[in-house]
Amino acid sequence: MFEQALLAMASVATDPYLLFLIFATTILGVIIGVLPGLGATTGAALLLPFTLTMDPVHAIAVLATIYVSATFAGSITAILINTPGTSAAAATTFDGYPLAQKGEAGRALGVAVISSTVGGVFSVIVLCFAAPLLARVAYEFRSPEYFALTVFGLSMLASISAGGAVKNLIGGIFGVWLSTIGAERVTGIERFMFGNYELYEGLHFVPIFIGLFAISELLVQSKTVNKIVDTVSMKAVKLPTKEDYKKIWKTILRSCGIGTFIGVLPAEGATVASMIGYSEARRWSKNKEEFGKGSIEGIAGAEAANNSATGGAMVPTMVLGIPGSGTTAIILVGLMVHGLRPGVYLFTEQVEKVYQIFGSMFFANIMFMLMGLYAAKLFARVSLVPTAILWPIVFGLSVIGAYAFQGQLLDVWLALIFGVIGFFARRHGFSVAPIAVGLILGEMVETNLQHSLKMFDGAWWMIFTQPLALMFLIFAFLGLCGPYIYSLIMKRK
Q1: Which domain holds residue 230?
Q2: Alpha helix (H) ranges present in 35-164?
Q3: C-alpha 387: how far from its chain's center?
Q4: Whether residue 462 has pLDDT greater than 60
Q5: How many Cβ atoms sit within 10 Å of the Cβ of residue 4?
Q6: What are the residues whose beta carbons fall under 8 Å from the beta carbon of 174, sequence distance 6 or more?
Q7: Is residue 380 scored above 80 in pLDDT?
Q8: Which of 24, 169, 221, 471 could be bridged to 37 by S-S, CB 3.0 to 4.6 A?
Q9: Rounded to an integer, what distance in angstroms lies between the CA atom of residue 98 and that of residue 108?
Q10: CA pair distance 162, 39, nearest whole angstrom
């Protein structure tokens, strides 16, 4: 098995077309990550419809490459213009920009590049070992266990992103409701179709995701059309010195573990990982006074954590069908569209394809490292492209991508409608990621609940007699109610 996995990963190097796709997508991912307002999720949503005609491995490799490269690239603008290209790079601004203002922008970027690469490679290695092991455990899962696991995944929406637990849960519930539109799969009963039989098979993920992530972001960013940014000059990216490595290696390793663990948790992602990685770097640092003033430990802690979360987030996505982040929700859709059903089947019948995808992520990390070291200054100039020129191009790609999915005008309307919904949601403090995850998990909840009820002849309480199912339901309860119970206990004390 191990030899087969290594051969499959190594086969990526012998596929010139796949290497070209990884290289080209890495460049595109870095550009998307550098542009403030765009990010890995938006980039993946835009590219998803254009991957439908590709080979399954090539398609998922493209989406995964966008994920890892855009996550890294957000650090470039975070350091040079104090504006994170992606939300995952927000913590990098705390020390990256102050260090750049001291005339050490190259050093700051060097630390970010190396930390990101180590974090990304570490997470891929963990992914290679953890995913098959988890798949073996998942082999024992039946409908009650999958139902409970999905409920646990939905409960984790409370902490998926900024906005607050209540708003995130409302978004998740809205996503679950969206998944019920169309004909019920068992009985064929029409639900929420309003006489429109184009909705008989339900709402398709692709146009909705384009609307929620891409078009809504354009509408939100429209107010920054004439925004002027202050840039920091940079001569060249510098590799960390020997003294720098001595100072940050413990921080990098710690953040690699933190980021991978956070990424594995359903519905968490790189943004949460970077914040925790940064805070833990400060907690364990001997030079706490330097944080906020240009600490390389702060940069390393944030960047190693957010990039290691990418591989970690792929674990529940590919093994359990539970997205580990907003971007992996789109990758999950790509897997399903191309017939790569997440779960045990993927790691038994499609194991070669799985490890080719892992190998693609490994090569993507190496490529963005080289680009970060030798072309960061060039990519940073992309951020200076006027948004008045950029946004119409992105909007055009969004519409084309939505129409290209099935060649139906309905998909274009869906993308535009959900773009507006996403815009108002963001404007009122809601995150769109819970909506996307709820849409994906909603069908899983309903299907597995139906199958569980059939198993137990309608006795729904029998689900609680299954040990694994009960464990996940307890976790879900603690995830939702634990903070409130803890606060009540502390008040009594």
Answers
A1: 2-151+192-430
A2: 40-47, 56-80, 93-99, 105-138, 143-155
A3: 24
A4: yes
A5: 11
A6: 435, 438
A7: no
A8: 221
A9: 10
A10: 16
What interhelical angle do 326-337 and 296-319 show, nearest 10?
30
CB 328 within 8 A of CB 312: no
Distance CA 209, CA 11 (A): 32
Please report whether residue 361 resides in a domain: yes
The token pair that represents 265 in the structure block: 């948790």
Amino acid at position 180, single letter: T
Handedness of CA 174, 175, 180, 181 (dihedral sign): positive
pTM above 0.90, yes or no: no
Amino acid at 225: V
Q: Residue 206 carries which side chain, given as an amino acid letter?
A: V
Is 217 inside any structural domain?
Answer: yes
Nearest to residue 305, comparing CAs of 328, 281, 277? Answer: 277
Contact 71, 115 (CB under 8 A): no
Helices 165-179 and 433-455 meet at what angle, rounded to 10?
Answer: 60
Residue 472 falls within a domain, yes or no? Answer: no
Q: What is the pLDDT of residue 420?
A: 92
Q: Is residue 171 part of a domain?
A: no
Alpha carbons 216 and 319: distance in angstroms, whole number: 30
Instruction: Give CA–CA dist 260/333, Å, rounded.
Output: 22
- Residue 189 has φ and ψ, to the nearest 5°, of -70, 130
* CA–CA dist 160, 439 (Å, integer): 15
- Please report which confidence band the pLDDT of residue 304 belongs to, taking 50, 70 and 90 as the band edges: confident
SS3 429: coil
Asked whether residue 213 carries a pLDDT value surpassing 60, the answer given is yes
The chain-wide mean pLDDT, for the chain, equals 79
Interval 70-109: pLDDT, tens: 888 878 777 777 666 666 777 787 788 888 877 777 788 8
252 CB contacts (<8 Å, ≥6 apart)? 115, 118, 119, 300, 301, 304
Q: How far apart are CA 1 and CA 354, in angstroms?
A: 13
> How many domains is the chain built from?
1
| Cα(421)–Cα(416) distance, integer angstroms | 9
Dist. CA 345–CA 25, nearest whole Å: 28
CA 22 vs CA 65, 119, 364, 423: distances in Å = 6, 19, 6, 32
Residue-wise pLDDT for 417-443, tens only, equals 998 998 998 888 887 778 887 887 888
> How confident is the model at residue 5, as a pLDDT?
64
pLDDT > 70? residue 128: yes
CA dihedral sign of residues 88, 268, 264, 256: positive
